[in-house]
Amino acid sequence: MFFPDKLKKGDTVAIIAPSSPVTTEQADACKKLVEDMGYKVKMGKCTYQSLHGYSAGPGKSRAEDINEMFGDKEVKAIWCIRGGDTSSHAMDKLDFEMIKDNPKIFVGYSDVTNLNVNFNQKCGFVTFHGPMVKSNMLNSYDDFTRTSFEKALNMEDEILLDNPQGEEFKVMVEGCAQGTIVGGNLSLLVSMIGTPYEVDTKDKILFIEDVEENVRRLDRMMYQLKYSNKLKESAGIIFGDFTDCVNESDSEYTVVEMLKDVLADYSKPVMYNIKSGHCFPMSTIPLGANCTIDTRTKSIKFNI
Q1: Which UniProt keywords apply (predicted)?
Q2: Bridge partners of 159?
């Protein structure tokens, strides 16, 4: 798996909107924010578009932005402005062969899961499940999130994943496992099963997070992963944050309790309470890197 070149001050960062829209004012503010960090900025045209209120322009236009920024030799990194919905509309219009030949830093999560999974699998380079410009950097860019992001972007041989102070990794199933780290948002992972863009979990460490889903819906989605052998084929699982995911019918039956039931017959290592996802602060995960999880030391390590 190729690890993208490091980003330096003065380099050009592209900001794209592969999913849902932002306002013109927010797009302008994001551009200024990244410029103030010391980078030149190119804005994808869809950062200034909105279609039907929930898409940042047609899927064809969003795919064109992605293809253009990967093909642009001046652009050293591509940062997503936000997640949301409908990244799926762009998938069949992406030039994966060209993207494979032009690997670079790519950052996003949530609805961007579709892109992360396929850039890892089809193009062979590491992407970053990390902060997005409008969602995280514009108003909520805390020190932990910034440090974790910069550590991941600049990793040399290996890094240990950290949680914010006061939050420890927890163990659901004991063990030690190693494999490529893949995954992202649960809703997106299950939505692509049966398509050319589904996640391959065989002998890999599967990372899962979600936001604002009722426990009963998460239960259904976990069983979809189970019945499609995505859980069985994986080498281990780490669960990120399940932000605002509640059980309105039975507050004592939480996400964690549901996951324990789903994985009652799972014998490979499982860790949870990894603060990566729709939480503040959040840690950055280099998807596509080699990952080692060890429940004895409660450690998660990435290396390239």
Answers
A1: Carboxypeptidase, Hydrolase, Protease, Serine protease
A2: 302
